[in-house]
Design brief:
The chain is α+β, with helices and mostly antiparallel strands. It has three domains: 199 residues, no CATH class; 165 residues, Immunoglobulin-like, CATH 2.60.40; 83 residues, Sandwich (Immunoglobulin-like), CATH 2.60.40. It contains five helices and 35 strands. The strands form six sheets. Strands 1, 2, 3, 4, 5, 6, 9, 10, 11, 14, 15 and 16 form a twelve-stranded mixed sheet that branches. Strands 19, 21, 23, 24, 25, 26, 28, 29, 32 and 35 form a ten-stranded mixed sheet that branches. The chain is elongated and about 175 Å long. The N and C termini lie far apart (184 Å). The N terminus is likely disordered.
């Protein structure tokens, strides 16, 4: 009995401890290695690992992966139960180099920790707050320093301290990148290729966060790093019109010899501060026509000086911000902006598109491409800096009129306004065609008939495009059948045909005379018989 009482008493005691001293699942035992804090060897580097997550806040197509570069180590003194912070060797080397902005070169860890990091922007996700870190062209000292280090990391191929690949959140629809084996400390996160892979349209700001140690009573807890990615996106719109007045759309009917006009509207991303090279935005356009005013800006404040057939200098509010260069042999134009901090985030311009060639134009859809590219903010090498962001096709629709007729026949084609669009001659295969037409109703009039055939005197109308009869197997070709009739051949005077007709006529006359003579003789005989009786 006494033994049972003791067992019950022990169980009650342990239950009391369990209720009044609940286990803290976040509590950790701090682990260290032999690396010591500068100036005090009693502090050893912390080697505990935790999660580092980046919520991309884009969409499920984002396949960007990130690499981590450690900036600050954590050191622990087990006797004092205290921690200190110190720069990593790589970051200290950067601070001592000419790549570091001069205002930061004498920085201590205390100054670093006290830098103005701006107002933290928070976004609630699954009931929790996630801090947005990073900077842009006009951001604070901390963002400028981190942007400079990002460039240093890329230029000097600094080894990474972790790799973040993509996972999916089941509740929010927002993908995130995560690694559950990141050493405690402060880390800079950069995308693998600097430019986001969300269809190549996102620029990620510099992102910094820490897998940190925090004291909770008498225990230490390891806190995960969680960042809502700071991204900016770009966009590109490419529209076309059959003439300078519009209307503009994604496609247009543009016949041969017309004056089509293209329109480009694009938005540029926000770049991190202290990029190693001035960020560049390039818009490349196919086949721009060489004539006065081949490129004009709609966005106010822009102008082009020294304009020629091969290009000019782009200015915004009288400051040079880029160039426009036209290839005289291909017509391709590159509009490059090299001072994007000076220009609006959204820009619109128009260009004179090359008209279609009636001989070489492809029936149906003729694509004209515009492509927007922007540079990697963390490298000084322009040759590898340009990354494709957007590519958009504007489409010219053009058609052909096909006539099925008689070899050698010639037809004139006029539009609904009576303007001649050309002629069609029927070939030996019984087919003739005229390319480069817009959709609409056309009048077909024969101007020459083949030898031995009658001219078709009545004109006919035919619909090309919507409502017309498209030729099977020939996209963009619309057919009408107009065959000539054979002439009735009449004889010429003095020909053999006249002699034949004369002979036949004479015979008919002779037969008639004979018949008349016989008829009179017979009648006289009848009369004589009657008189005698």
């Amino acid at each position: 009995m006494e033994r049972k009482l003791k067992i019950v008493s022990c169980l009650v005691f342990f239950l009391f401890l369990l209720i009044n001293c609940p286990l803290n699942v976040e509590a950790i035992n701090i682990t260290t290695n032999n690396e010591t804090y500068s100036g005090d060897s009693s502090y050893k580097k912390v080697t505990n690992h935790g999660n580092f997550k980046i919520y991309t806040n884009t969409n499920s197509h984002d396949t960007t992966n990130f690499r981590l570069y450690k900036i600050v180590n954590i050191y622990y003194n087990s006797v004092r139960d205290e921690i200190k912070y110190g720069f990593t060797t790589n970051f200290q080397t950067f601070l001592n180099s000419s790549d570091c902005p001069s205002t930061f070169r004498a920085m201590t860890i205390e100054i670093f920790m006290s830098l103005n990091k701006g107002t933290a922007i928070r976004d609630q996700l699954d009931g929790n707050n996630y801090v947005v870190s990073g900077g842009n062209l006009t951001s604070n000292d901390f963002a400028r320093l981190m942007s400079a280090y990002a460039g240093y990391v890329r230029e000097h191929t600094i080894s990474t301290d972790g790799y973040l690949s993509m996972y999916s959140l089941s509740t929010s629809g927002r993908p995130y990148k995560m690694s559950d084996y990141v050493e405690a400390g402060t880390h800079l996160a950069l995308p693998d290729d600097s430019i986001g892979a969300d269809y190549g349209v996102s620029v990620f700001g510099v992102m910094v966060d820490s897998v940190r140690l925090e004291k909770n009573g008498s225990t230490w807890e390891l806190k995960d790093a969680e960042i809502l990615a700071k991204t900016t996106t770009t966009s590109l719109s490419h529209q076309i019109a059959a003439n300078y007045q519009g209307p503009f759309n994604l496609s247009a009917d543009v016949g041969y010899g017309g004056s089509p006009e293209g329109k480009i509207l694009f938005a540029i991303p926000t770049y991190p501060a202290n990029s190693l090279v001035p960020p560049m935005i390039t818009v490349t356009i196919d086949k721009v026509r060489n004539e006065s005013g081949w490129l004009t800006f709609v966005t106010s404040g822009f102008s082009i000086s020294d304009m020629s057939s091969t290009g000019g200098t782009i200015k915004y509010n009288n400051q040079t911000v880029g160039t426009a260069v036209r290839n005289s042999s291909t017509g391709q134009v590159k509009v490059k902006f090299t001072s994007i901090s000076l220009i609006p985030k959204t820009i619109e311009f128009k260009y004179h598109a090359e008209s279609l060639n009636s001989i070489n134009s492809v029936m149906g859809a003729n694509k004209r491409n515009a492509k927007l590219e922007f540079s990697d903010p963390y490298t000084s090498s322009e040759t590898v800096a340009i990354n494709t962001a957007e590519s958009r096709d504007a489409i010219f629709y053009t058609y052909a009129l096909q006539i099925t007729g008689t070899n050698g026949a010639v037809f004139k084609i006029t539009d609904s306004s009576g303007v001649s669009k050309g002629t069609i001659t029927i070939g030996s295969d019984g087919i003739g065609e005229l390319k480069g037409l817009k959709s609409g109703t056309y009048t077909v009039t024969q101007t020459k008939a083949p030898a031995g055939y009658a001219l078709i005197s009545d004109s006919q109308t035919v619909k090309v495009g919507t409502g017309g009869t498209q030729v099977s197997g020939k996209t963009g070709y619309y057919n009408i059948t107009m065959r000539n009739s054979i002439l009735l051949v009449l004889p010429f005077t003095g020909s053999k045909g006249t002699i034949i007709f004369s002979i036949i006529g004479s015979l008919l006359i002779i037969v008639s005379i004979i018949f008349l003579i016989k008829y009179k003789k017979k009648k006289n005989k009848v009369n004589q018989n009657t008189t005698t009786n």
